[in-house]
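Continuing the batch. This is chain 6 of the set; chains 1 through 5 are on the previous pages. Same settings as before, nothing changed between runs. Recording input and output for traceability.
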Amino acid sequence: MEQKPAKKMFLQIVKQLRELIVDQRIQPGDKLPSERVLCEKLNVSRSSVREALRSLELLGLIETKHGGGTFLADVGGHQLIEILSSFILQGEKSQLDVHATREMHEREAIRVICQDIQLRNLPIWDSLFIQLELQQELKRDAILRECIVAAGNRLSLKIWMQLTAYSMTSLKELVTEQEKRVLQMLIKSMQMGYVEEAIEAYNDWMKQL
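Output for chain 6:
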């Protein structure tokens, strides 16, 4: 089987799943074919199908019932999910738009933290800094999630979680040695309330990804 970049493979599987749902007239609440059947129909590996299904479940497009299989969810009232699902199917330019929108939420969270002395003094920042200093394993999305959560906007958090599922950047990977220095600068700038320096450090980090 020809190997394809992960993001292109994901796009391909999602598009093929959509076509299969339309062709088989699967309705909300109906059961989707099993992973094995999907692998055969889509001609992709089981791990690729499983990863695509996991992302779609996170977005609320499908539902998995323990021991019962995977079902098409009713998203009629979830406009954000509809927008994101249509974006992912429109190609790479739309992926870039999703990525940029996610970054907007992250930058604003950093700005809010810098401007609030209580948020700047949260113990989580020292904890993250020490983890980086001791070269402990730390995932990228863990740092970003703490920023979004600390900013205190629950709606922004929900939107951010949806956006991360479609982001082109691999946020689930561990922070690399090259990233640690700029992340420490980001954390210290937030603690000092230096908005411009914190945003600059964040931008430098995103360029590395």
